Amino acid sequence: MILEVAEAGDSEQVRNFFAVLAENGRLVLLTEIAALFDTYWANLKRTVDIEVTAAFELTDEQQNKLAQALSKKLERQVSLVASLDKSLIGGVIIRTGDMVIDASVRGKLTKLADALGS
Length: 118
Fold this sequence. Notes:
This protein is α+β, with helices and mostly antiparallel strands. It is about 55% helix and about 25% strand. It has 2 domains: about 1-45; about 45-118, no CATH class. The protein has 5 helices and 4 strands; from the N terminus they run αααβαβββα. Strands 2-1-3-4 form a 4-stranded mixed sheet.
């Protein structure tokens, strides 16, 4: 079925790629292959997707300043997506790939509780 869909395209390389995956029983890896390709493509274009979770709604100006600061620090073009989580109490959590910056009040309280419990 995938080969039939791939045959709709003009690229013989794409058809061959799907054929090799199917012959080797690796079609289940398509989502991981796509994720790796997206990562490779973003590295090539020097871009990064960043998810910011904040305790309060970020204004456009705050988002722009944060995106500029992260762009400068990471030396990449930043695409920022903001979401709201009132359980953070205050501050933000910034996620990109395997990097997480927890500047939330909840995160700091958790670290403090861990330190006191040690």
